[in-house]
Amino acid sequence: MKLKRIRILLGSIFFLLTTLLFLDFTGTLHHWFGWMAKIQFLPALLAMNFIVVAVLIALTLVFGRIYCSVICPLGVFQDVVAWVHNRRKNHRYSYSKAVNWLRYAFLAVMVVALIAGIGSLVALLAPYSSYGRIASNLFQPVYIAGNNVLAYFAERVDSYAFYSVDVWIKSLPTFIIAAVTFVLIAVLAWRNGRTYCNTICPVGTVLGFLARFSWFKIYFDEEKCRSCSKCSKGCKASCIDFKTHTVDYSRCIVCGDCLSDCHFDALHYGRKKKAVRAEVQVNSHDDKGVDKSKRSFLLATAMVSTAALAEEKMKLDGGLAVLKERKVWKRITPLTPPGSMSAENMAQHCTGCQLCVAECPNGVLRPSTDLMKLMQPTMSYERGFCRPECTRCSELCPAGAIKPISREEKSSTQIGHAVWQPFNCIVLTDGVECGNCSRHCPAGAIEMVPNNPDDEESPYVPAVDETRCIGCGACEYVCPARPFTAIHVEGHEVHKVN
Predict the structure, then answer these.
(1) What is the pTM of this model?
(2) DSSP code, position 189
(3) Are strands 487-497 and 217-220 parallel, antiparallel or unpaired?
(4) Is 8 exposed, middle or buried (0-12, 13-18, 19+ CB in 10 A)?
């Protein structure tokens, strides 16, 4: 059946390329396929990208819930799991009534969470974000480990097409949530196909309501139907009742499986002349006049090089000296990335999809552990600092939580300010000269001054000019004091522009 083949082809392309966006740590694929993250329904809605939202709604009103079977990576992931399980066990599903009270309850929770700015609930329920967590926390480490194996062997033949990257858990709570989500969705898909989509997913509920009024639908030709039940047993959305010849269009994802399963040509996809009731029934006894005109989809795919461009590693003063493990400062005000504008904007728009965390080349972004902002990105400087020339997170955020920002704008945006802690500074505790923070500050906001202004022989310590500091964290990153650094960055609730 052409419909099924087209759906499988398009779904595979979208699924593979969207997944690679989370796996690719070089940022190469983003320049080609970053738009795939921005056409996801909820991120586009939060980013107020009304053109994308209007197009997705129009597609649903014309073709049905093809978004769920083609564009949504979590939906395609469920299909993959169900396919693996059903390779030797065909026709094992059955029709069941929609649990509408539960569907709309989850939708109500999502709406309330969006209005109240409870980012943790939004992140847990958003389908794209759920898959993003799975891809970035479970799939990306495996992908990077494979890259590191290639880098190991490539180095031994004097090839630098690959370079080694650290594999580390950015947030244990987020990793656990991703693992639990993976298991939950996989089990549901393994047992009952699209249960998650048609019971929990709020995006599926919204699109399902619109799909009831779609122009093209799957419908029965009752004269040809032999009530063999193959369509109901093969429907992973459990939305086909062969006994009454009805289809629940609010749950049908137009996968086309039923069309290929029917050996009597009793199921068709198209537009009927007679009006269809707004509920779920189809009452037609002939298929004459049905529009069977061919619809073609233009596909454009490009092969991109997997060779990564090695970035120059940052070195601390002291060469290869081994440093003690540092402890993380508990910031009074968390840091949000340049372009997020404020903590409030981040809370209201971020869906916690982890794309920015997975793509951050400096190891600065990681998921928050704050219960109200769980899994939304926050900044920490143990593994690097926020380089003024890097704007990758603002370029790829699909939800508008991090607005696009130029390098010039980033260099003049204050996301926080550095705070010096004299009781940790090795100049005072160990009696040695340092000045790392001053030498590495890209904004020139730190000056070394005598600790005692009246004594020129006194040791020189850092003085921070808060009006010039942009909060990039270079000073905190290079500070040699352990276990706590002598200088750290406190965030601003609302970003300032110099």
Answers:
(1) 0.83
(2) H
(3) unpaired
(4) middle
